[in-house]
Structures are given as C-alpha cells and as structure tokens.
Amino acid sequence: xxxxxxxxxxxxxxxAFVRLVAGYFAxxxxxxxxxxxxxxxxxxxxxxxxxMPRGRRPLAEVVASLxxxxxxxxxxxxxxxxxxxxxxxxxPAAVWTDALISALNxxxxxxxxxxxxxxxxxxxxxxMCDLVGFGEEAGGAFTSGGTEATFGGLLAARAIALPDAxxxxxxxxxxxxxxxxxxxxxxxxxVGQLGxxxxxxxxxxxxxxxxxxxxxxxxxxxxxxxxxxVMAVVATAGTTATGAFDDLDAIGNLCEQAGVWLHVDxxxxxxxxLSPTHRWRLDGIARAQSIAWDPHKMMLLPLTASMLLxxxxxxxxxxxNQRAPYLFHRxxxxxxxxxxxxxxxxxxxLDAVKVWVALQRYGADQLAAVYDxxxxxxxxxxxxxxxxxxxxxxxxxxxxxLCFRYVGGRTIGDVCLDELNQTLRERFNRSGEGWITVTxxxxxxxxxxxxxxxxxxxxxxxxxxxxxxRLGREIEAEITARENASPRxxxxxxxxxxxxxxxxxxx
Length: 507
Prior knowledge:
Layout: H1 3-7, H2 11-29, H3 41-47, H4 59-70, H5 92-104, H6 115-132, E1 139-143, H7 146-161, H8 165-168, E2 175-180, H9 185-193, E3 201-204, E4 206-207, E5 210-211, H10 213-225, E6 229-236, H11 248-258, E7 262-265, E8 290-293, E9 306-310, H12 313-319, H13 351-387, E10 391-393, E11 401-406, H14 414-431, E12 437-441, E13 444-450, H15 458-483, H16 487-491
Parallel strand pairs: 2-3, 2-6, 6-7, 7-8
Antiparallel strand pairs: 1-9, 4-5, 8-9, 10-11, 11-13, 12-13
Helix pairs in contact: 2-4, 5-13, 6-13, 7-9, 7-12, 10-11, 13-15, 14-15
C-alpha cells in the first residue's frame, strides 16, 4: 500500500514539479499576464472549500491542481512589475536547492542531526562576519527572519544588562530600549515578548528619515540622569518604509562612550556590504554588538534566509542559557557546533545551504552587481516620478525603496489625497498591471515601491506610472464629484468596511 511513496521518489515524479516551476519562471520573464489576483480572500477560499481528502490521487492530478488553482492567483514576484513588499524574485539555483534541503530534512539545531549542514551554516556566518569587519570571536546563527534576529539580538543585550533576567525576571529594573521613529515593528514586538514592557521604548526623532544623532545623544544623557539602564540602542540600516540608513558610525561612537549595546537592524540594507558602491552607507557597522540581516531580501534568496550576527558569540550563547544534555554537547573549550544553543528554534531548516549554493553559483561579485542594479533602478524610478506633475516623490532613494504620492491636479486636500492614494493602490493591484504597497510618512498616505526583481526595466516602471496616473485621474474625478454633490448626498455615509482596517497593513 506504500508503493506510491516510493514511486514519488523517481526523477519522473520530480520532473512534473520541476516543469511547473520552470514554466512559472518562463511565464513571468516575459512580463505578460497579471502580477497578482483580482479575487478577494473569500472568493479564493470558496475554491478550496472541500473536505479533507481521504484517498490517494494520481500525482498528475495534484500537479494539475497546483497549476490550475494555485499558480494563477498567487503573487508573481518574478514578474517585472512586481514592486511591492521586500520579498524577492528568488535566485533559481537557490530555488532548486530548496528541494534538496527538504529531501535531506536535517535539523540544523544539532551537529549530530546535521553534520554537514551545521558546518556549512557556520562557514556562511563566518563569511558574513568578515564582511561586517567582526573579529575572530564573532559568530551567529540563521533565523526564521529579521524579527527573530532582532529578538535574539535584544535577548543577548538583556543578558548583558540584566544578567539575572532569565531566572528572576525584569521586575524592579528601570530600563530603556532606544530606537529611531522609523524602526521596524519587530523592535516593539521583541521588547514586548521579552517582558520588558513596550512603555520602556524611547523613540528618537528623525531628520531626512534617519535617526538624529544629536537627539540620540541628548536622549542617552537624559536617561542617565534618570538612572535608567539603557539596555540597547537599535539603529536601522535600510528602514522598511523608505530604505533610509542611520549614521551607524556616529551612533556606534555614542554607544561606545555610554557603554550601551548597539543592535543594527540591517535586514534590508545589510547586503550593501557586498557592494563597493554602496558599502559606505554601512560605515561603522562593525561597532555593533548584534546585527539582523536578511539575505532573502536584497540577496534574492527564497524565504526564509535570515541571520543574526554578534560581535562576540559568547554573548549569544549566554542569552539562550538553557541545558538540554540529550541534545547539546560541547567538546572542550571551543565553540559548540550545535546552533540550537544560540537560536530560538529547535527544529531548524538548513537555510544556510541555499545561501552557500547561491554564493558558489553566482559569486559575491555578481550578487553585489544585483544589489547595485536594484538601487539604480529605484533611482531611475525617482527620476521618472520627478518628471511627472501628477506625482510627488517623498525622498530620494538610498537603496531600492521609493515612496511617492499621487497629487494629480492638486485640486483636493490632503485628507482626500490620503483616501485617493489608498484607493489607487488597491485598484491598481487588482488590475493586474503591477503590484505596489502603501505606507504613511508624516501622517500622509503615500505609495511605496520596492525594486527587488532584476528583471524590472525602465519600460516596466513607465508602464506602472502610466497605469497609476490613469487610475488616479479616475479616482480624483470621483472624489471631486462626491465633494461637489448636494449636502444631502454628501452627508450620506458610506458603509463601514468589514474586517480589519484596510490601512492597517504591514510594510
């Protein structure tokens, strides 16, 4: 009765899936077809509303279901007009490696469960620590994403600032965690999860979308006068909203003077370390004690491939201070090969292997060229936006992210323009012409583009802007007509949308 399990191990069975993926790659290369789906979640749910299958089906039927029911209405991130969230169009060699990782099914927490995989992970971590400029005592681990990496970095900071917190908790300590106003929500999430209290987050204002160093200096001085323990300062290298870089050198200098742990969220911008052109934006990163970095963003790795790097690996080992003699074994005084002693996860997929394969296949120099190309494409978009009167760029891109706003003929106020830009994004994405996101800057709703697909050309950017302009004019006319309607008509409220606030969308 288990013959089908053996049959599915054949090259013929694998070929059905390989052809499906290769066909997807080929279809998106041309730029034809929709980027995403016009269907709602409820409409998609009806497609899959069926009882749990109890019997087996031919593999060909299952693959056909994937091709018919899954692929068409998924987000096609390899499409050149996919310009939404920071999720990449993944490198093909890394995609194929995912199948091998799944087939081996090694748990990367313990060396004896993954003898080769854990060694490869530590090799890749060492390469990345060298890029940062860390010394021989540095180390780290792969994580499930930048959020877990930031959690791990702040956990290590807590172990230094409050060494008894693991056993006695944090009650009675007057602590503070300092970050910029554009820090990722993972900082607040980690602080809450660590039991530190989100009210203890102290936010430093920005200038030109980056943390103000003078304001940080004043903040650290004030907290010292208040006898509060600054557990960590979190700087950002590539903010989620705009891709801006904090001045890591100046911030690192202040943290060193104050004896404060510096964590750098470089989930988006860490890959600039590969680039001779953009590396300067990360000057001073070696002054950090911990760094979050997502190769699944600007290095174009498939989800997930994220890392936490620390200047001294012993601080990370101390942060995850638990004993599990049935799992973790240390031989001698050297570092443990068991990655589970320095990470939140016990069941750990060997994501480091696909990073290793990508570097072996394409080389660091080609990946650096990809980073440069994505940033240059964002600069091209900035130029195109600046040439059109109906759009207003909100900043000049420092990486591959640009925020801009549809302003049209400037005949309606800011509140109506907020509504227009939100509606514009929703209609544009449903049209299938492209896929973008939105965010808020300075209390205003703006359109947001992330260039994270090297297939995107200037022609694609022009087509996206033309589609946005056309729909923007339609929505602007609708709003103007509504505003000019009779008082009785204008007073009739529209029904409240069901479900969560459509503006409450992660970046």
